Amino acid sequence: MAFPPDHAFELVKSAHERGRLAHAFLISGPRGCGKERLAARIVKLLQGGGGGGGFDLFGEPVVEETPPLDELEGEWVRIVRPQSKSRRIVVDAIRELEKSLYVSSGSNWKVGVIVDADRMAAASENAFLKTLEEPPPRTLLLLLTPNPGALLPTVLSRCVRMPLTGVTDLMEGAGGELVRALDQASKGGFGSATVALTLKSVFATILEQRKAEAVEAAEAQLAEEEKALNKGFEGDYLKRREEALKAAAESEYLEERSRLFEVLQSWMADVLRCKTGVAAGLDFPLSAEQTLAVAATEDLPQLVRRMEALGELRSTLDTNAQEQLALEVGFLKAFA
Q1: What angle (nearest 5°) sits at the alpha carbon of residue 167, between those of residues 35 and 144?
Q2: E strands present in 166-299
Q3: Nearest residue to 254 (alpha-carbon basis) of 198, 317, 205, 201
Q4: Quick check: 42 and 50 in contact, CB under 8 A?
Q5: What is the pTM of this model?
Q6: Origin, by domain of life (predicted)?
Q7: pLDDT < 70 positions in the chain
Q8: What does each C-alpha distance from 328 to 53, 197, 205, 213, 332 come to in angstroms?
């Protein structure tokens, strides 16, 4: 069961107030769903804030601002992110984190946050297991990841899992690249095969890169684990682990494909909003000039047909259809 970020925070807050706070949480969910903000709220809570700002003179609740997670790093709060060229969290970073957690803090809570925990190298995960299982007193560990399946089962079993629902930031990463391609394509207007196939090429290239990155990361993880185990594994463990990592890579790829479709459909929904005179609340306000231009040149039935074509394409790709052929036909229907 996935939780809205606010509900997840209330659960953590309630456990803390009752003295029943777990020592490690695995906070998962798509990128942009609020994992870092939730972690920041939990840190503030343990620092003696974040419990709510009370009520104003009119009885309305006072909303307490939560600073970005990185601004909360300090003597008793450590944040680890992927830093190496390969975007991995190396074992030295984990050891530095552990060293800081074992410093006496008196009555203060110590918090260790690992962002993109799925990027930990196998050696990093194995080095972290003992601390994860038996952390020092008044220590909380928060592991944030969009891809929990890439973590070792031994890491997963030592954390309270807290999957989040939430709205994904559509402009994050490749989403912004796709929006820029839509903005550029719209300058000449939709309705030509050239425009449709250009957009399909951008979409497909992003997906190919994402798949290659996910597969490469899974292979590197498996190689590191095999080396760390030094052939000391039992039975078909490595085979099962390879299957799990492949499944996690495929899941990561499908999540990215779904997010890119959300970008396409949201951008076109902005065009429909502009066409019907509801320009407020656009998903991509910085693209308003482009979406207004498309709305001015196309009639409403044609825009609806384009939206329907994108929906049909998304559904087709959920079947066993050949992906590249389906994309080509779908983009021609949607944009030619």
Answers
A1: 15
A2: none
A3: 317
A4: yes
A5: 0.62
A6: Bacteria
A7: 49-64, 84-86, 166-168, 228-235, 279
A8: 53, 7, 13, 23, 6
| Structural domain boundaries, residue 115 | 5-163
Q: DSSP characters for 91-108?
A: HHHHHHHHHHHTS--TT-
- In this structure, are 119 and 29 located in the same domain? yes
Residue 70 gets which letter from DSSP? Answer: G
The CATH number given to whatever domain includes residue 74 is 3.40.50.300
Query: For the chain, what is the domain count?
Result: 2
Q: Is residue 168 part of a domain?
A: no
pLDDT tens column, 6-45: 999 999 999 999 999 999 999 998 877 889 999 999 999 9
User: Is-contact 111 46, C-beta < 8 A?
Assistant: yes
Phi, psi of 85 (to 5 degrees): -60, -30
* Residue 151 in domain: yes
Which residue matches tokens 């820029």? 180
Residue with tokens 């944040």: 79
Write down which residue in 142, 163, 184 finishes a domain: 163
Residue 169 domain-assigned (yes or no): no
Tokens of 198: 């250009």
